[in-house]
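Last lecture ended with a question: if I hand you only a sequence, what can you say about the shape of the protein? Today we answer it with a concrete record. The protein is TRAP transporter small permease protein. Below, first the input exactly as provided, then the predicted structure, then a couple of comments.
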Amino acid sequence: MTELFARLDRLSGWVRTLLILVCSLMMVTLIVIFGWLVFGRYVLNVTPTWVEQLALLLVVYISFLGAAAGVYEDTHLGVTFIRESMPRKIRRPLRLLSDLGLSAFGLAMAFYGAKLVQFGWDTNLAMLNIPEGVRTLAAAVSGGLIFLFAGLRFLSRTHEYYFNGSGRQGAL
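The predicted structure:
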């Protein structure tokens, strides 16, 4: 079972690396299109109107996909001082509860994000002429990844905490 968790963690790590790469490329694209905006506005005296819409879309994707990568690395925003001030026997179940709650939140994000994608697919974004659902697709994908990353961490920690990785009931 421990080998399975190790393989799934490696696969998740590759997905996280891909997320970081995609977000980095989106940041570079953001810089390039804003450079084009400035050049067009002040040198050519023609403002490219599509830049603002594309920039908003890129920021949405960078935020959501970056958040999913943060969940994998366990660097997402969280309030830990309450959990960390508790005795060790209480801290472990609270950490598991936190992972489970985050996983449930990711599942809800994926489900309702998919509904938003479906709802907005027939309407186009102004200036870009792509479906509005593309914007909300980031929330659905990010939610699915958060569900997977936090769920895997929950299962892995449960196995580690309660079975010490050997299949025997361990001390909490």
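Comments.
1. Residues 9 and 152 are 8 Å apart (CA to CA).
2. The two ends are 19 Å apart (CA to CA).
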